[in-house]
UniProtKB/TrEMBL annotation:
Residues 68-94 are annotated as: Disordered. GO terms for molecular function: hydrolase activity, acting on glycosyl bonds. InterPro entries: NAGPA (IPR018711). Residues 68-79 have a biased composition (Low complexity). The keyword Secreted does not apply. Pfam families: NAGPA (PF09992). Keywords: Glycosidase, Hydrolase. It comes from the Bacteria. This is Phosphodiester glycosidase family protein.
Amino acid sequence: MKKLNKKGLGILYGVALFSFSTYALLDTFVIPHPMQSVMASNVVAETTSSSIKESVEAAIQEKLNTGTSTTTNLTSETNVASNSAEKENSDEISSATVANVQTVEGGTVIGEYSDSNTSITLKQYRAYDSDIYVADVTVSDVSVLKTALANNTYGRNITDTTSNIAEENNAILAINGDYYGARQAGYVIRNGNLYRNTSGDRDALVITKTGEFEFVSENETSAEELLQSGAYQVLSFGPVLLADGEISVGENDEVGMAMASNPRTAIGYLGNNHYVFVVSDGRTSESAGLSLYELATFMKELGVTDAYNLDGGGSSTMVFKGEIINNPTTNGRSNQERSVSDIVYIGGGN
């Protein structure tokens, strides 16, 4: 009888331990936890910062999407200049055109869009045994270059596919962002709002309210200081690919323990209100993927002066006018999107 009781207690203890462990894992990696921003400021002003205490150990949640990769407005023209978009206040925007970035051979225009605030030319290239998609973007003002969070909510384990987040925010063009939710640190400033002020010990990209790119060490400046000095977007992933026209990565540099050749996502600065979004395929029989050095070299040949690497691998996705342009790969499957925390996008105008 005593042996039976001990056995029964052992079983109960095992069940209790398993249940607790299961809940802890679900709470850490699955159960959504919406959080409040540290500071909200759409206009640079004096504010009072509050400490944010969080534990964001979100594993990459992979929510498969059955949409297939397509291209939009296929055309054989390869030298189409970007149309300058007019500001509402009649100020002239950047006069730089797609013709300025024709140094890379093999590009084919596969889509175009323009309105009063935005001009986009989408091209497909073949380089490094990979398909690479480049969106050349000219905007009237940096406010057109936006970011969005999954479910429009900041927090742990809150994810959605790039295409779904793009649709919810009426994005004309979107790429995945830095997947802030996969890490518990790294500055998060989006559309002028500060959500996380914990240093990630890395170089972050600051897109200022004047539309310029700046690279900062999170160990040398606080998120509050960046916000007060005019940061509009702060993305924390990296590394920096190009700075002042010079390649900033070595031939053997890589993100953590990632493979040397991967799908990639990056954003680059060409000049006043003139940007490029770049996504490359990889991990498929058709596309090997790019190293960081290859990505930096490719973007330099486009004429980019400053470029920053965003989350890649299975996260790398480009959406244009509602269609998935590239060939996302998740869990070894192609044409499957990974759910992510956030996107960088261009909104439509009138």
